[in-house]
Amino acid sequence: MGHLSSMFNGLARSFSIRKGKSIGNGDGREAAEAMAKEAKKNDLILRSSGFVSVDGSKNFASVFSKRGEKGVNQDSFIVWEEFGCQEDMMFCGIFDGHGPWGHVVAKKVREWMPSSLLCHWQETLAQTSLDPDIDLESDKKHQRFNMWKHSYIKTCAAVDQELEQHRKIDTFHSGTTASTIVRQGEFIFVANVGDSRAVLAATSDDGDLVPVQLTVDFKPNLPEECERILQCKGRVFCLEDEPRVHRIWLPDEESPGLAMSRAFGDYCIKDFGLVSVPEVTQRHITSKDQFVVLATDGVWDVISNQEAVQIVSSTADRAKAAKRLVESAAHAWKRKRKGIAMDDISAICLFLQSSPHTQEISHVGTPK
């Protein structure tokens, strides 16, 4: 079974060493959470504005967040290097909360999602490795993607259910989006719930740097999204003072008016078309793929994909790339959205190719 088999064996050792038990359904979550604690202790997890680079890693991630003009910053994010104790894996996630408890919901999903994903991926990997009907060697790329997609779908369902059952958080009128990336060797797996966005910067054949949008902005007016909402008796329309902003509404109330069609939480509208099912895609990284920008809609509302790629690529110091992008978006809000309160703005810039200038840089973080 080659690489996948050795990966499973290595992950199994990681789980059993840390917990002193065999890996199984009962132990997986605890082991994953133990890994998260150890990674945080070893400065492999970044949860505040700054940057992370680990010796020998191909990854370099720059992160920055700026509070908007609507109160507390409801954006949250995480970068986890050596995800699951695998040297060739990394997890990046950005979460945009909304509603009275949105900032709490975003942080909870940030806390739960990586560990839950690791647990479900471990279980899926174990089942796949032991299935005699699956030939892992015949189509590694297809099997690898199926495992991550299956793991992500189970994870999002589990996280949403856990939120609903949490007694100390009001998630009836609050929720969060979630856009995440797992880098595994030369592949990236992208899972998106909501309207944050991932954009890849790739070098074209003529040498120009061009944007490739990796995710769909799940807005209520997208044909398939709108059809699902209407079939569930929800409504989709714009307010008079926001003629271009489509929102989801309850059948008989002008509430809650969500501007996205997928999210965690928001249980007041979950029976009327809102879902937390992720769209999962993969991409094989080549030497032409330079970096990925993962950002909340506070960036994309005022900055185009091409502008974002240009801003990041023209920043000489990779560690300052996310900050420059966020500050550029803040200036664009003042210029393009006069009279409208600026949204929270957050971005992760994940560089895919090693740079000689960053080989000696280690983790640095500053609180929001």
From TrEMBL:
InterPro entries attached to this UniProt entry: PP2C (IPR015655), PPM-type-like_dom_sf (IPR036457), PPM-type_phosphatase-like_dom (IPR001932)
GO molecular function: metal ion binding; protein serine/threonine phosphatase activity
Catalytic activity: O-phospho-L-seryl-[protein] + H2O = L-seryl-[protein] + phosphate; O-phospho-L-threonyl-[protein] + H2O = L-threonyl-[protein] + phosphate
Any one biological process term the GO annotation gives: negative regulation of growth
Ranges for domain PPM-type phosphatase: 60-352
Class of this enzyme: hydrolase
Listed SUPFAM superfamilies: PP2C-like
Keywords: Hydrolase, Magnesium, Manganese, Metal-binding, Protein phosphatase
EC number: 3.1.3.16
Names of required cofactors: Mn(2+); Mg(2+)
Stated family: Belongs to the PP2C family.
Name the record gives this protein: protein-serine/threonine phosphatase
Species for this entry: Hevea brasiliensis
